[in-house]
From TrEMBL:
InterPro entries tied to this protein: aa-tRNA-synth_I_cd-bd, aa-tRNA-synth_I_codon-bd_sub2, aa-tRNA-synth_I_CS, aa_tRNA-synth_I_cd-bd_sf, Glu-tRNA-ligase_bac/mito, Glu/Gln-tRNA-synth, Glu/Gln-tRNA-synth_Ib_cat-dom, GluQ/Sye
Function: Catalyzes the attachment of glutamate to tRNA(Glu) in a two-step reaction: glutamate is first activated by ATP to form Glu-AMP and then transferred to the acceptor end of tRNA(Glu).
Lineage: superkingdom: Bacteria
Aminoacyl-tRNA synthetase class I anticodon-binding domain mapped to chain residues: 326-447
Subunit text: Monomer.
Enzyme class: ligase
GO biological process per UniProt: glutamyl-tRNA aminoacylation
UniProt protein name: Glutamate--tRNA ligase
Keyword ATP-binding: yes
Primary localization: cytoplasm
Organism this protein belongs to: Candidatus Woesebacteria bacterium RBG_16_42_24
GO molecular function terms attached to this record: ATP binding; glutamate-tRNA ligase activity; tRNA binding; zinc ion binding
Catalytic activity: tRNA(Glu) + L-glutamate + ATP = L-glutamyl-tRNA(Glu) + AMP + diphosphate
Coiled-coil region: none
Length: 452
């Protein structure tokens, strides 16, 4: 078997979609499992939709996820300047497999066009305009999809004459993908299932140009939990948006690995290197996976808890400038306290923001006996000499027993007074970090507001 060569070929027309990352990952693993090459091509021929800086961002993100490509990046617009596509499109015309069309772009439903897939210009011998593929009638067009593991075929009479080269000299995807994959020596091409209807066009171009057909595989669609295909219009489907939400690259990658592929042993946790070693194209799934945010959170929580103390602390400092302003001992105490309690870095402010930013508690969060609870807690905590968790626990539990308080109600009122929230790390661990002076000051401040 020849060395495997795969490619990832994104368009710089917007943020990298989670489905795009999956295609890149599977293409990378398919090549690297057998020590092959993984190549990168930027398909930037749609200049009207190109987003400034998107080319660079795509490459930056691939590096962040460890998906390092081999060789130089192929840029389609540069190949346009070199005349690569124009030359081969004209060759197809000269050999009778394509034709010029200078008609204005029109809706396929107009003038009976949806009923007749043949362009009226195909037999007029025009010498200028866009170049379109001359699709034959009555032929079977077929290939074996290596992901679906079955033959897929079309009657050519159902395939429309399709533009290959626009009048401005830029190729459409249908021409460029074939020429570029051939010139790059691609042996296996993975792409989204939404490209399946275009495949017969590409198969004909391969045939007419005399190119060897690579193995082609169409991946499943990633579904939205609310139904339908996961859309680029939703910010959470952008890789960059997920990173900004506080998801680690390791967790996003591990989550994406299992969105359409399954190992033989049902294993869930993989590093990139472990995934490449275990990768088998037989593991591609045929049913569409659902983007399960809870599962992504689970992966992220796992990887957060694997971070070294220094690394987690550094990430949390980047997350919040006020936290970064605390002394190092207090930073590490806080980061260690939240390690087991956050599923993404962006949870940090909500869970632990009270440490470095005092917030006014909502009176509605207190229980019916909150005044008595706080007055008693204040009296006891003022007398604590050794401000450590063991002594604080002992003093407060004794208070609860002597006063016959309900333990849960007492600590909840204390939590709300000090943290302004019902959801925080354990309150006694928190007050140790917060310090005696600040803890008592906050309790007194709440008591004062209740009096006034």
């Amino acid at each position: 078997m020849d060395d495997i060569r795969t490619r990832f070929a994104p368009s710089p027309t917007g943020p990298l979609h989670i489905g795009g990352l999956r295609t890149a990952l599977y293409s990378y693993a398919l090549a690297k499992h057998d020590s092959g090459d993984f190549l990168l091509r930027i398909e930037d021929t749609d200049k009207k939709r190109e987003v400034p800086g998107a080319k660079e961002k795509i490459q930056e993100l691939l590096r962040e996820f460890g998906l390092i490509w081999d060789g130089e990046v192929v840029i389609q617009s540069k190949r346009v300047e070199e005349g690569v596509y124009k030359k081969l499109a004209e060759k197809l015309v000269s050999e009778g497999h394509a034709f010029y069309c200078d008609c204005k772009a029109r809706n396929a439903k107009e003038e009976g066009y949806s009923k007749d897939l043949r362009d009226p210009c195909r037999d007029k011998g025009k010498a200028s305009g866009a170049i379109k593929l001359k699709v034959p009638d009555g032929e079977k067009i077929a290939f074996t999809d290596f992901v679906l593991e079955k033959e897929v075929f079309w009657d050519s009479s159902t395939v429309s004459d399709t533009t290959l080269l626009k009048s401005d000299g830029f190729p459409t995807y249908h021409l460029a993908v074939v020429i570029d994959d051939n010139d790059m020596g691609i042996t296996h091409a993975l792409r989204g299932h939404d490209w399946m209807p275009s495949t017969p066009i590409h198969l004909l171009v391969y045939k007419y140009l005399g190119y060897k057909l690579p193995e082609i595989g169409h991946l499943t669609d990633i579904l939205d939990p609310e139904g339908g295909k996961l859309s680029k219009r939703k910010g959470s489907t952008s890789v960059e948006a997920l990173l900004n939400e506080g998801y680690l690259p390791e967790s996003i990658l591990n989550f994406v690995m299992l969105l359409g592929w399954a190992p033989k042993d049902n294993r869930e946790l993989f590093s990139l290197q472990e995934f490449v070693k275990a990768f088998d194209p037989k593991g591609f799934q045929k049913s569409n996976p659902v983007f399960n945010r809870d599962k992504l959170d689970w992966f992220n929580g796992h990887y957060i808890r694997q971070l070294a103390a220094d690394e987690l602390n550094s990430k949390l400092k980047a997350q919040n400038s006020k936290f970064a302003g605390l002394d190092k001992e207090k930073q590490f105490a806080i980061s260690n306290l939240v390690r087991e309690r956050i599923n993404k870095l962006s949870d940090f402010d909500e869970l632990a923001g009270f440490f470095f930013e005092e917030r006014k508690p909502d009176i509605k969060l207190f229980g019916p006996k909150h005044r008595e609870h706080l007055q008693s807690a204040n009296e006891v905590l003022e007398k604590v000499e050794n401000w450590e968790k063991e002594e604080i626990d002992q003093k407060l539990l004794t208070l609860i027993k002597d006063k016959e308080f309900k333990t849960g109600d007492f600590f909840m009122d204390l939590r709300v007074a000090i943290c302004s929230s019902k959801i925080t790390p354990p309150i006694n661990d928190s007050v140790v970090i917060l310090g005696k002076e600040e803890t008592i000051r906050r309790i007194r401040k709440v008591l004062s507001s209740l009096t006034n």
